[in-house]
Amino acid sequence: MTERSDARMSSDSSYTRQGGLSNREALVAVLVALCVGAAATLALRPATGVVRAKDVEHVAAPVHWKLPVAFGTQLPALGDNALYLAERVLATSDGEMNLEVFEPGAVVPAFSIVEAVKERKIDVGYTWLGYDLGTIPSSVLFGAVPFGMEPWEYSAWWFYGDGQGLAEEIYGALNVHPIFCGVIGPESAGWFRSEIKDLEDIRGLKIRFAGLGGMVMQELGASVTMLPGGEIFQALEKGAIDATEFSMPAIDERLGFNRVVSYNYFPGWHQPFTAFHLVVNTSSWESLASHQQAILETSCTAAVVNSLAKGEALQGETLIGFQDLGVKTRSLPEPILRELAAVTARVLARQSDADADFARVLASQQAFQEQYSHWKRLGFLPRDF
């Protein structure tokens, strides 16, 4: 050994004899302490558990829920968004959560999804809240409002205005937890057998129309009926109805309306936005672990973007193709739109007088529209620029 090594060993030995530890012994002591600490942590940790930020929680149970939908999944943006949602939930949860999609009517009737969720006949459903208009008057305001907000404006109101809070309060009283889960742009104003030159042409028509727009049509003397999307073509073909509205051009074409009637009118005054929601039974919602709730919320937010983007992407090509199909696209004259707006105002006022929840949701939306209008007017190019 070298003289330096002998001196170091002598120094180490002297340190040990005085009650200290050598470098090697100190390292061993640290490692032993770490091992003891780790063992103690494992002893306190449940064998099947995961460590959370605040405390230790058991592993969440896998979720396999039936997901009945209000719209056929063959319909782009409108119906297939539920498939997109189910795929996102499955992938994001790494297979822990599975929403099994069922076509309209396969589990519960298309218009009865919220009622079935409320009674916990099913845990979850994907629907348009406007179908609850007969039992929950304010529900339709969360689905579509004539001369109301545009899709991004509604989204802003939902996430950063009063929308989510109001919906959760109103539906929470019914044991239902609503999650904003899809939105598309304006529908067409409807499909007709002949031209609409003034509102007298509406009087006496047998027409399929939904929500508040249907109330406006009734005010104008039309005979309004509600039919699920899958039943409209047959009703048109057999003459049970004279006209219909349903959705955007690409969706209406998929249902074949253009094969029966040829006049397709715009703009979609009655539904400038159409929003869809995932509705979860409150007890079922509360049975989920916090990360499972977050997966549903995050996947629904992704589905909002997906449905809006897909819906907007398809319409231009569809309208170009209408030229070869003999569809006569027409715009409602402004005087007719002004009259429709006036009738809508009367319908909204009457509904507000009859239901307090309707009144406060509408007031919130209109206040948001008013403040947003300053940005909308200044920030965007005119559509006819």
Q: How do you describe this structure in short?
A:
With 385 residues, the protein is an alpha/beta fold.
SSE inventory with pairings:
Blueprint: H1 3-17, H2 23-44, E1 49-51, E2 56-58, E3 63-68, H3 81-92, E4 97-102, H4 113-118, E5 124-127, H5 151-160, H6 163-172, E6 176-184, E7 190-192, E8 206-208, H7 211-219, E9 223-225, H8 229-238, E10 243-244, H9 249-255, E11 263-266, E12 274-281, H10 282-287, H11 290-325, E13 328-331, H12 334-354, H13 356-379
Parallel strand pairs: 3-4, 8-9, 8-10, 11-13
Antiparallel strand pairs: 1-2, 5-12, 6-12, 7-11
Overview features:
49% helix, disordered N terminus, 385 residues, three-stranded antiparallel β-sheet, D-Maltodextrin-Binding Protein, domain 2, alpha/beta, 15% strand, globular
Note down, in words, how this protein is organized.
- The chain folds into two domains: 61-186 and 273-312, D-Maltodextrin-Binding Protein, domain 2 (3-Layer(aba) Sandwich), CATH 3.40.190; 190-271 and 332-360, D-Maltodextrin-Binding Protein, domain 2 (3-Layer(aba) Sandwich).
- It has helices at 3-17, 23-44, 81-92, 113-118, 151-160, 163-172, 211-219, 229-238, 249-255, 282-287, 290-325, 334-354, 356-379; strands at 49-51, 56-58, 63-68, 97-102, 124-127, 176-184, 190-192, 206-208, 223-225, 243-244, 263-266, 274-281, 328-331.
- It is an alpha/beta fold.
- It has 13 helices and 13 strands.
- Strand 8, helix 7 (211-219) and strand 9 form a beta-alpha-beta unit.
- The chain starts with a helix and ends in a 6-residue tail after the last helix.
